[in-house]
């Protein structure tokens, strides 16, 4: 797998450029800002971008959708429940940052259990709500993009509209903790880690297990 992580924008959100080494087909996960940097990485990696995938609809994960789509003609993918956020500055929280940012609408609205094929690379869509109603994680072979559901030592905020603390704990317990310890975790913010480390140091894991027993 071709892989590059780029921290973008004022919140230093993680944008991921991934691709298939055999076909050079690629995708950009969560292009939140700094389209020029992202496109530079795409060119350097010699990828043809087929998909622009948003793990959820907040501005720091969709902010460069428009520029990426214009440059690559990649299809924008997001869960059905977060799709309205793309075209609503109030819902995507851009107004909170003093901006009025719209993304193009979704080309494909995702559902739990969908599969995204990027050449020989396969990403399975998992609905992991709590940070937003339509938050998703993307599971590949030995790794998961967790968006703003689960970080190395924390979880996504649940005090924004549509957030739910109980729901995000349930997503962690019932979906993400099912992955084995060696699974690489690529979060929406912060550093890459493993599920083993998360089990050891993330206090919300214990809270999820205790609260939902």
Describe the structure.
The chain is α/β, with parallel strands linked by helices and 213 residues long. It is built from 6 helices and 12 strands. The chain has a single domain, classed as Metallo-beta-lactamase, Chain A. The strands form 2 sheets. Strands 1-2-3-4-5-6 form a 6-stranded mixed beta sheet, with helices on one face. Strand 9 and strand 10 form a beta hairpin. Helix 4 crosses helix 6. The model has no long low-confidence stretch (mean pLDDT 95). It comes from candidate division TA06 bacterium DG_24. Keywords: Hydrolase, Metal-binding, Zinc.
Q: Key terms for this structure?
A:
single chain, 213 residues, alpha/beta, Metallo-beta-lactamase, Chain A, 6-stranded mixed sheet, 6 helices, 12 strands, 23% helix, 28% strand
Summarize this structure briefly:
Residues 12-189 form the Metallo-beta-lactamase domain. With 213 residues, this protein is α/β, with parallel strands linked by helices. The protein contains six helices and twelve strands.
The unreliable regions are none
CATH classification class: Alpha Beta
What is the 3D shape? globular
Radius of gyration: 16 Å
Helix content: 10-25%
Count of spatially separate domains: 1
Order of helices and strands: EEEHEHHEEEEEEHEEHH
Distance between the termini: 38 Å
CATH topology (level 3) name: Metallo-beta-lactamase, Chain A
Pairing-aware structural class of the strands and helices? Answer: alpha/beta
Pfam families: Lactamase_B
Keywords: Hydrolase, Metal-binding, Zinc
Protein name: Beta-lactamase
InterPro entries: MBL_Glyoxalase_II, Metallo-B-lactamas, RibonucZ/Hydroxyglut_hydro
């Amino acid at each position: 797998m071709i892989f590059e992580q780029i921290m973008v924008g004022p919140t230093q959100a993680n944008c991921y450029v991934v691709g298939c080494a055999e076909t050079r087909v690629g995708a950009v996960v969560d292009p939140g800002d700094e389209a020029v940097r992202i496109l530079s990485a795409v060119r350097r990696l010699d990828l043809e971008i087929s998909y622009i995938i948003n793990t959820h609809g907040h501005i720091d994960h969709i902010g460069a959708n428009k520029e990426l789509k214009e440059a690559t003609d990649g299809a924008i993918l997001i869960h059905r429940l977060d799709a309205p956020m793309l075209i609503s500055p109030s819902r995507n929280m851009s107004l909170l940052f003093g901006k009025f940012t719209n993304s193009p609408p979704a080309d494909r609205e995702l559902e739990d259990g969908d599969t995204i094929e990027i050449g020989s690379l396969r990403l399975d869509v998992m609905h992991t709500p709590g940070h937003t109603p339509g938050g998703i994680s993307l599971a590949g072979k030995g790794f998961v993009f967790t968006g703003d559901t689960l970080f190395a030592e924390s979880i996504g905020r649940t005090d924004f509209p549509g957030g739910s603390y109980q729901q995000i704990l349930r997503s962690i317990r019932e979906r993400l903790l099912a992955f084995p310890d060696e699974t690489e975790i690529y979060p929406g913010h912060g550093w890459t880690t493993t599920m083993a480390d998360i089990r050891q140091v993330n206090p919300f894991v214990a809270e999820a297990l205790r609260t939902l027993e």
